[in-house]
Design a protein that fits this description.
Length: 74
């Protein structure tokens, strides 16, 4: 979410505008700007919170590549 000049949600929205089928996974440690419900509205396929393990990341990527939407993070 925190990058110079543009936040992750804005970058995601721009990418999705160019290619609506792009599988975006948004990962953040904490954000007052966006949550899982808002991410879904933008077309983001998964919203995960840090810290996460490599297994959790791998499972998220696999589920998105398989075309499955994920539930909200715990």
């Amino acid at each position: 979410m925190t990058m110079p000049d543009m936040t992750g949600d804005k970058l995601s929205a721009q990418l999705i505008k160019i290619r609506p089928d792009i599988p975006v996974i948004l990962c953040t440690g904490y954000s007052e700007k966006i949550d899982a419900a808002e991410a879904r509205k933008l077309g983001i396929k998964a919203f995960v919170l840090k810290p996460l393990t490599l297994d959790q990341l791998a499972q998220t990527v696999r589920e998105i590549l398989d075309g499955n939407r994920l539930t909200d993070p715990d």
